[in-house]
Amino acid sequence: xxxxxxxxxxxxxxxxxxxSYYLAQLGVKSTIIEREGLGNQASGNSAGGLNPLTGVxxxxxxxxxxxxxFQLHADLYAGxxxxxGIDYQHRTVAKIDLAMEESEIDGLKETAVRMDAVEGFxxxxxxxxxxxxxEPRIAPGILxxxxxxxxxxxxxxxxxxAFAAAxxxxxxxxxxxxxxxxxxxxxxxxxxxxxxxxxSCGQVxxxxxxxxxxxxxxxxxxxxxxxxxxEILRLELExxxxxxxxxxxxxxxxxxxxxxxxCGTTEDWNGFDREPSxxxxxxxxxxLARVFPDLADAKLAKHTACLRPVTPDWLPVLGRAPGWxxxxxxxxxxxxxxxxxxxxxxxxxxxxxxxETALSIQRFSPERFATQLE
Length: 374
Ligand SMILES: Cc1cc2nc3c(=O)[nH]c(=O)nc-3n(C[C@H](O)[C@H](O)[C@H](O)COP(=O)(O)OP(=O)(O)OC[C@H]3O[C@@H](n4cnc5c(N)ncnc54)[C@H](O)[C@@H]3O)c2cc1C
Known about the structure:
Elements: E1 3-10, H1 14-25, E2 30-34, H2 42-45, E3 49-50, H3 63-84, E4 91-98, H4 105-116, E5 122-126, H5 128-134, E6 145-153, H6 156-169, E7 173-176, E8 179-185, E9 188-194, E10 197-206, H7 216-219, E11 226-236, E12 245-248, E13 251-255, E14 261-264, H8 278-291, H9 293-296, E15 299-310, E16 317-320, E17 327-331, H10 337-354
Parallel strand pairs: 1-2, 1-10, 2-7, 4-12, 10-17
Antiparallel strand pairs: 3-6, 4-6, 5-6, 8-9, 9-10, 11-14, 11-15, 12-13, 13-14, 16-17
Helix pairs in contact: 1-6, 1-10, 3-6, 3-10
């Protein structure tokens, strides 16, 4: 019998699974089509930080949406954990951002003032001796740091799977499959073509992350999303657990509830290469030696490499595909795709069901790249 679905969602990362979840909440059934396992790409191997106050585009064009997504995460946790049966460990984190160079001090002090003014956040400058009191294993010679408390974090593999599990509970389906193309006419797609069959559909969501450009030839539009490789070493540390996320000198340290310290993260434009690299591992350990020497030689539990979906303006691409009545783009979340997953899911589900959303996604319209391909 021919397969059929109301909404075909191509890609089972955080974006695709969140869209499926929010659609299900509005009573719309979808099929998530994923070729390599739910959350097995960047969405399952990210640092899982939900930081709405700093990063690319914040302050700036991503700030309002980032904040909305942060609030959606907070409101979502208890219900999604219950409904999915997956505790994805949404929790508040404390962080120390170290100043390694004089030139970094003013910026960190300014950020501390800005963060401290936000309700629910606390931030202040630390002199080197204050840093040592909080975490004596941080390398001597640092010039101080910013302490902040109020950001949250999740296990992003579990979050992605929680979205999918709760959506499935409400009637969604997960289909293993590698999408090869789309078929339709008069501005409407009506079939998704897979290696092993095809699925008739009412609407389509493209949530293919760094592989989104593959759909340019299917839809005849630009979807300028390129892969930015990021690697993380999960390291075992003897002795007391580290209590703070720590960053400085190009190193970031995330002590996770799995007992491992996730250290990285790197950024390389290296095409679709997803191989963990020995050279990058050495670079991460070199950076750690300057910041937290005990970790520089710590035992490796796992080394991951995956690809962030990045657009030319570092902003996501959210909304109806130009020239198509029933195709939506949910991609390009770059370095913030776990934070943005809630807002991506909610806003795309809103647009698909009502044609509008209250979330601040106006600047992320696919129309900004709307030149039609031949
Ligand atoms: C090292 C690192 C650290 C990060 N840390 C953070 C962080 O702390 N906070 C944060 O918010 N973000 C972070 N990110 C970014 C975040 O992980 C990504 O933005 C996010 O995971 C992107 O989600 P996605 O669903 O768009 O893409 P993906 O997770 O890549 O999912 C896309 C899915 O589509 C599938 N797919 C593609 N083409 C097809 C096809 N033809 N047929 C079937 N399936 C297909 C793929 O298999 C994949 O599973 C980090 C990323 C990296 C690499």
